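Following up on my earlier thread - several people asked me to post the actual chain instead of describing it. Fair enough. Here it is, all 480 residues.
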Amino acid sequence: ILDAVIFDLDNTLAPTDKLEDIRERRAYHEMTPDVLARIKPYKKTVELLEFIKERGIKTAIVTNSGREYAEILLKHLNLPAFDALVTYTDVGSAGMKPSPKGISLALDLLGVKASEKVIYIGDDYKDIVASYYAGVKPIVPTWASRKPVSQVPAAVLSTDFIKDECNECDNIVLLAELSAKLNTFDFPRKRLYFVPLDESANVITLKDELATICLGRYFSKKSLVTVEMHDKHALSLEIARKDLVENYTPPDYWSDILAHAVDNIPQFFAAKKPFDIVTVIPSKKEKKQRLELVLDGAAGRSKVGSEFIPDLFVFEEGAKTLKTLPRDERAIEIEGSLFLNPKYEGRLRNKTILVFDDVITTGSTLQRAYSILKDENAKHTLGVCLAKTVSISETERLCPRCSSHILRLRKNSSTGIRFWGCSGYNDENEKCDYTEDVVIKSCGKCGRDMVRKLNRKKGTYFLSCTGWNMEPKCNNSESE
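Reply from S.P.:
Thanks for posting it. Predicted structure:
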């Protein structure tokens, strides 16, 4: 059962765009009965809160709005009482979301520890990032704001789904993540969760903007918080294996998932017939075919008669791997490297096409595929991806040596210690082996950086000042 449900306030419990100007100016005296009369809770909000409280689950609100504003609004909304309310007034500007301070304070007030048994429901990018930092499960509600969200949550849930899963919160798992955890697609399936995305890979709640169905998350290695999640997340570890294992072969459940999508997605959207064509984003010409193997496996499992085409798209020779590039360069690179295979030109008019990819970050690859198919007058195109990248580093750091790749957190296989390494390490054309230590804190004696080290004799870790070989020297060390 859930330990707690924490809510954002504005545009999560009630639509409050009309109060935005008052909220930003802190002109709370203008929140008159006439102004507030237009603000009502979202449909089923009261029903959901009563349901949660009847089951003894604690509730709280964490908002970036001020306390006076929140109290006036909550009194007007007349919602069931919350066990805790944390506002801007309590945490200050430094503690505003995406800082986890508000959620952590709410957990303290509730007497609950951060875990997957705590969900935070919010409609904004900041809500999701704060949840990840705080160690709770982020949920985007289907009933709230219609604005796209760039960060991918643990799930997108309706009121009814939240009520149904209150007593079995372990069921709130995206399909590909659950399959990876169990290493099989053969398990009882009450409901298969996915995250709907638009063409720019933003999380959405409107069906008419749907471009891609996302079945899981991939936690990146660009920040300390996501790399910790990565190391405990079965799907992320499996996806990472493709770059670590020379002759990597995708697990069978990837084909099972794709076959299930091919057979069931049309029914989900009340389509009268299956996809005409199912294809994949192809491997680069010098790389081993991976998704093509998944497609072949799905073709043997599917029951609806779609045509499975592995080479609908082709990459040009020397196409760069997008994950090594900064975000703003990916769309430009993919537009000049991914094309329709000439032998299929003129054959896609009025066809419905499903395109499968393993991991998307900015969505530029699938967006390019959609553009190609649109030019070929395809009737309808839908993408399916195993995972969307969760990357909550505020900025991408370019490698200071090569200036063409980004830095990622890697692990020393001998010591188990994380370090920053250039993503061009495995780039055959532009290899770069730049590395730097991860800074943990400042030295209390000299103010220089302290980094994590391994005492091999004792098998324990400690923090060491980087000033040990500088002038003046500093040999300060601390236990973790």
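The chain is about 30% helix and 20% strand. That should answer part of your original question.
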